[in-house]
Amino acid sequence: MLMTINIVFEYICPVLIMFWIVISLARLAGVTESSGPAVKGLLLLLSLLAALYPIRGLSASDYMLSVNPGFSIGSAVLLLIIVCNRIFHTKLLTDKDLKRFAIWNILISIVVFVPALGFTGLDIYAMGYGSYVLFVVMALITIFLVFQKSSLSYIFITYIVAFNLKLLISENFFDYITDGVLFFISIGVLIAVSRRTGSNYS
Amino acid sequence: MTRYIMIILVCILYAIPLIRTYQLSGPPSIMPAGHNQENNASNSREPVYLESFINDEIDGIQCHASSITSAGKNRMVSVWYAGTREGAKDVALYISFFDEKKNSWTAPGVLINREDSSGELKRYVKKIGNPVIFSDRKDRLYLFYSTVSIGGWSGTSINYKISLDRGTTWTASRKMVLSPFLNLTNNVKNKGIVLDDGSIVLPVYHEFIKKYSQMVRIQPDTYEIEYKITKATHEHKAIQPSILPNEKRGLVAFFRNMDRDERKYILMAESSDLGHTWTALQNTTLPHPNSGFDMIMLSNGSYLGSINKAFHNRDNLTLVISSDRGRTWKELKVIENNPDNEYSYPSISRSDRGLLHITYTYERKRIKHIVFNEAWILSQNAYDN
Asked: Does residue B91 form part of some domain?
């Protein structure tokens, strides 16, 4: 049962990426701006098909998972924010919070990835299996965000709920927070939001 | 008010994994060497030493990276990879069983090829590589093998299959997530150690950009496993660890040395907490040409190794023995010595009868097998100074 949930869950991010790609292409062609819900629904269906339909045994999602076998909850949240914005023009996070979220993703990724790739002798990744320090720090950050009434607190609560429910294959809490693809998307989001907010202020 | 409820909720949510982690359970310890063997062949006073080949030579086909383990009473199983060249699309993992009573191998069969691996994993598999096979206390067989989706061997990830019927049928392959950055990268060479609580310590190594060794702590379930990975070495030259028991909760690891020195030696490190922490690396006295090797603990606590005992070439394969936990070594027998040929990547295992089996790459054309008992080791005056 748990394995089935893991398998279903791991396809969420690839499907969201495909939504993003298809909607972006359609937007470039001017389709979504002028079209009604029927066309948008059709595009979503097309995205789902493109993401999951196997060609010679493997779907586009399977190829994405071949490159990045472990999409994090952070990825799922960020992709959901992007896709909702593209399709429904709904902002799940304000630009300020989105920028903070992107910065958090980049920083935590650097902290975890650099030692994991052998550039330092530290073993930060191993702390994700149940280090007292990590969970206390994460709990304190989450409480701080709750006090601040920040929308990011919901994301931090989602990390730990997903981890307790073992929604991903990994037993490591860091795999719920970040992954390689999230790192790169967050850099792109940070640049885009910074440009947007910068041009708004100027 | 809502905020305070949320804070209590956050505290509870973060407490759950901590409670899980600190569940009361006694620390595991190491099973004694040969814990499951019957006392016949191993205690035989008659020295036994036999040689054979597992597979026939086929023109244009290379084979490499064999691994051997016990598969029940009087039965051993070996796996290796073969194809037109290392990393080629036609490379597959092959399996064969050895009957100790008949002293014969079954005809090799394909255990898994690139396409089947891709189908089972639901992932693109560009190439298939190193297999490692070993059994646990419940006679379950574990196969760990490496695959690459993009790039070269430094982009390797590890997959596993489990057999509950001693190698006749296997579960579908499952991919292990062992690195936070695109799962880059881990590979296997030598088998793990089974602890008395049924858990396993599997040595693996990281090759992407920097090279170092890691330990995977595995908790087996019936058809799948849970695992945690921790770093073992911090210096960027020690890979392919072979781990041996030391004391009740002690381990000794010997490492392939990737240093650029002209004269390299096999490296070693010790752990007193079942591989959670390790001492700094130190050189052994064993010359080393940057090649794979394997070691095993004998029933008297001595260590037996099968290595390329040279600084530059893989043209000799030698048995070495240490009675002082790896500090000093004595040459037991030169198994192969033929300049300009390759004899490499040995794997050592003990059968239920206590016989010691070694398989290795023979000139990249075949997998050779030797089997001997501890009486034969004694007959070689192995422990005399």
From this structure: yes
Strands B104-105 and B127-135: unpaired
Domain hosting A143: range is 2-201
Residue pair B305/B294 in contact by the 8 Å Cβ criterion? yes
pLDDT digits (tens, 9 = 90+) for A60-74: 999 999 999 989 999
- For tokens 């970040």, name the residue: A178
Give the mutation candidate from A106, A160, A177 for the B interface (greatest B CB count, under 10 A): A160
In 3D, which of B344, B304, B350 has the Cα closest to residue B62?
A: B344
Looking at chain B from residue 300 to 359, which residues have their Cβ under 8 Å from any Cβ of chain A?
Answer: none
Task: Determine the pLDDT at residue B147.
Answer: 97
Q: Is A179 on the interface with B (CB under 8 A)?
A: yes
> Cα–Cα distance between B332 and B345 in angstroms, integer?
18
Q: Looking at the predicted structure, is the pLDDT value of residue B283 above 80?
A: yes
Report ipTM (2 d.p.). 0.91
B23: in domain: no
* Residue A202 confidence (pLDDT): 42
Specify the long-range contacts of residues B155-161, CB closer than 8 Å, at least 24 apart.
B155/B184, B155/B185, B155/B208, B156/B129, B156/B185, B156/B186, B156/B187, B156/B207, B157/A69, B157/B183, B157/B184, B157/B185, B157/B186, B158/B186, B158/B187, B158/B188, B158/B204, B159/B117, B159/B121, B160/B225, B161/B112
Are residues B91 and B107 in contact, defined by beta-carbon separation less than 8 angstroms? Answer: no
Domain that holds residue B212: 29-379
Task: Indicate the burial class of B65 (C-beta count within 10 angstroms; 0-12, 13-18, 19 or more).
Answer: buried
Q: Each residue of B113-139: pLDDT tens digit?
A: 999 999 999 999 999 999 999 998 788
Q: Is residue B188 in some structural domain?
A: yes
Domain count, chain A: 1
Rounded Cα distance, A168 and A148, in Å: 29
Q: Which of B240, B189, B191, B183 is CA-nearest to residue B211?
A: B240
CATH number, position B208: 2.120.10.10
Q: What is residue B324's three-state secondary structure?
A: coil
Rg (CA), chain B: 21
Look-up of token digits 């294959």: A169
Reply yes or no on whether the pLDDT at B31 is more than 80.
no
State the Cα–Cα distance between residues B72 and B179, nearest whole angstrom.
Answer: 34
Give the closest residue to B190 by CA, choosing from B307, B56, B301, B19.
B307
Going by pLDDT thresholds of 50, 70 and 90, the confidence category of residue B36 is very low
Cβ–Cβ gap B180/A179 under 8 Å:
yes
The model's pLDDT over B65-88, given as tens digits with 9 standing for 90+, comes to 999 999 998 999 999 999 999 999
A20, A79 contact by CB (below 8 A): yes
pLDDT for the residue B37: 45
Question: Which of A33-47, B111-125, B259-273, B347-361 has the weakest average pLDDT?
Answer: A33-47
Contact residues on chain A for B3, CB-CB shorter than 8 A: 146-147, 149
Q: Does B1 fall in a domain? A: no
* A 47-106 residues with CB < 8 A to B: 57-58, 62-63, 65-70
